[in-house]
Design brief:
mainly alpha, 11 helices, globular, CHAD domain-containing protein, 2 domains, CHAD_dom_sf, Four Helix Bundle (Hemerythrin (Met), subunit A), 0% strand, single chain
Length: 332
């Protein structure tokens, strides 16, 4: 018979957390098998599933750490973070390249709809092709290196140890002896409180005003280095994901809270645009590039910072919306 906390109807570790971790560990092993059996052109989907399962296991081990064998869970969580990060880099570089090349085509006067970030004196048209070639060269090289690193990781003894840990977890969850009947709600509530605190610290009032694309292009924003403002937003994104995973682990449905879905999507776009802007700025620092190329990269950087501001605006609007009645949590 399933255990219940004597004073509450809320789920407890032995009833909900253990099956959840076993399920995610099984999903990890299934995705690993599919990844090994797939060809190079078919590996993206199982790699995504592998990363998703690793993130969920890691999130649960972090949130509910006091209920688990601490040394074991800390070791596995560290290794899962390493694996997830290593596997994510190749996809991230590819997505960044697609985003930046697509933005260049959108920004160029000769290619489709114009962005709200202005291009002047035809300089963008002159430099866009060379800027695109430079970005493609740099990010393709980075993607190739990330692919090699991922392949090496998947063949390493370190990875085999992670897979062994997942196999153990799929059959036996190392709960502490006194943890089986412990309710999960206080731990999930703690994550939610940390998320609320982090959101409260964001400049949501500023994000609630229309952004100034002209100022971004010409460097007239209040902060000369807008990237320095990104870290708190990235932290909120991670806490929001941790909150979602904690809710999943307690048995909440992951498909009803439109507020959290919208907030998470806007923060994903924020992260993508911020990293793309950094890549454009890095390309612009390449020695001995032509002024027209540097100008095109500057416009591209401004365009992506504009997307950052737009994502913040979208986030604050989503976050201030009333929560869905079901208060369920979205999957990524």
């Amino acid at each position: 018979m399933a255990q219940r906390h004597p004073d509450s109807d809320t789920p407890v570790a032995g009833e909900v957390l253990a099956p959840y971790l076993r399920e995610q560990a099984t999903e990890f092993l299934r995705a690993l098998r599919q990844h090994r059996e797939s060809g190079a052109d078919e590996a993206a989907e199982p790699a995504h599933a592998l990363r998703a399962a690793a993130r969920r296991i890691s999130g649960a081990l972090h949130t509910f750490r006091p209920l688990l064998d601490a040394d074991w869970s800390d070791r596995l969580r560290t290794e899962l973070a390493w694996l997830s990060g290593t596997l994510a880099r190749e996809h991230a570089y590819a997505a960044r390249l697609d985003r930046l090349i697509g933005a260049l085509h959108r920004l160029s006067p000769s290619a489709g709809p114009r962005s709200s970030v202005p291009s002047q004196n035809g300089g963008l048209t002159v430099g866009a092709a060379k800027a695109g070639a430079l970005i493609e060269r740099q990010l393709t090289l980075a993607r190739t290196r990330a692919h090699s690193t991922a392949l090496q990781a998947l063949g390493s003894s370190r990875f085999h140890a992670v897979a062994d840990g997942a196999a153990v977890l799929a059959s036996e969850v190392p709960l502490r002896k006194d943890a089986g009947g412990h309710p999960l709600a206080p731990f999930a509530a703690d994550v939610e409180a940390r998320l609320d605190e982090a959101v409260t610290a964001l400049p949501l009032v500023r994000a609630g005003h229309p952004y100034n694309a002209e100022a971004l292009l010409h460097g007239l924003a209040a902060d000369a280095a807008p990237e320095s403002q990104d870290a708190p937003w990235h932290q909120v994104r991670l806490l929001l994901r941790l909150h979602r995973y904690a809710q999943e682990a307690t048995g909440a449905r992951p498909d009803r809270d439109v507020r959290l879905i919208s907030a998470g999507q806007s923060l994903d776009r924020h992260r993508d645009a911020a990293e793309a802007a950094t890549a454009a700025a890095s390309a612009a620092r390449t020695p001995r590039i032509a002024p027209a190329t540097a100008y095109a990269l500057g416009v591209l950087h401004a365009d992506q910072r504009h997307e950052v501001e737009a994502s913040r605006f979208t986030f604050q609007a989503a976050w201030r919306r009333a929560p869905s009645p079901d208060h369920a949590v979205p999957t990524p």
